[in-house]
Amino acid sequence: MEDKIQKESVINELLWEHALTYKEYRELITRLLAVQKTTGDNHSEKMLEYTELNVQRMNKWDKITKITPELESAIKKIHSKQKWLVITEAWCGDAAQNIPILNKITELNDLIDLRLILRDENLDVMDAYLTDGGRSIPKLVIMDNDLNELGQWGPRPKPVQDILREMKSGKLTYDEFAIQAHTWYGKDRTSTLQREMLDLLQRLQ
């Protein structure tokens, strides 16, 4: 019960009003890259490379993602307003692989409003939605119009989360994890994320 109260208190109307639309999020990343920056405080060459690569990933999914008929049907069955909040950062590879699909899903129903906030600027929110004790992103929180939580997803599809756990157990290096994870995303072509979202929406009905 205390955990639920904490989550409700950190996501409020003020935070929601200042959250970014997907279009605003993409525009922010473009502006930052133009001055050799990314989101957060680390503007190293490596972080800029990640961010530039993520722009390519998001562009790809924006262009080729097709929502399955089953998921489209489930999303169109939502008849009351919902607010979907995603915690993210521009340099996060998992965010780039998943957020464009979440955007495509919400575009199918005008009752759903998708917004994004930056993790490192909102650690109080992030810390209410930890994964295995870590500040893993992206994290989606689905709420009704009054900001009461209905469900959540993230930070990545289960097969990728399993690969991450292998890395954390010492079976993979970070570079090996990154290669395996992004290879998986390319081969999966959003199908697992769409199934997981379908399962979530069906549980919420």
Structure, explained:
The chain is an alpha+beta fold and 205 residues long. It has helices at residues 2-10, 13-18, 22-34, 45-64, 69-76, 93-106, 123-126, 158-168, 174-188, 191-204; strands at residues 82-88, 112-118, 139-144, 149-153. It has a four-stranded mixed beta sheet, sandwiched between helices. Helix 6 (93-106) links the parallel strand 1 and strand 2 (112-118). The relative contact order is 0.15.
Q: In brief, what are we looking at here?
A:
The protein is 56% helix and 12% strand. With 205 residues, it is α+β, with helices and mostly antiparallel strands. Helix 3 (22-34) runs antiparallel to helix 4 (45-64), helix 4 runs parallel beside helix 6 and helix 8 (158-168) runs antiparallel to helix 9.
Characterize the main sheet. 4 strands, mixed
Could you name the ranges where pLDDT drops below 50 across 5 or more consecutive residues? 1-7
Count the DSSP helices: 10
The N- to C-terminal Cα distance equals: 22 Å
In the sheet with the most strands, the strands line up as: 2-1-3-4
Q: Features of this protein?
A:
10 helices; alpha+beta; disordered N terminus; single chain
Secondary structure elements and pairings:
Blueprint: H1 2-10, H2 13-18, H3 22-34, H4 45-64, H5 69-76, E1 82-88, H6 93-106, E2 112-118, H7 123-126, E3 139-144, E4 149-153, H8 158-168, H9 174-188, H10 191-204
Parallel strand pairs: 1-2
Antiparallel strand pairs: 1-3, 3-4
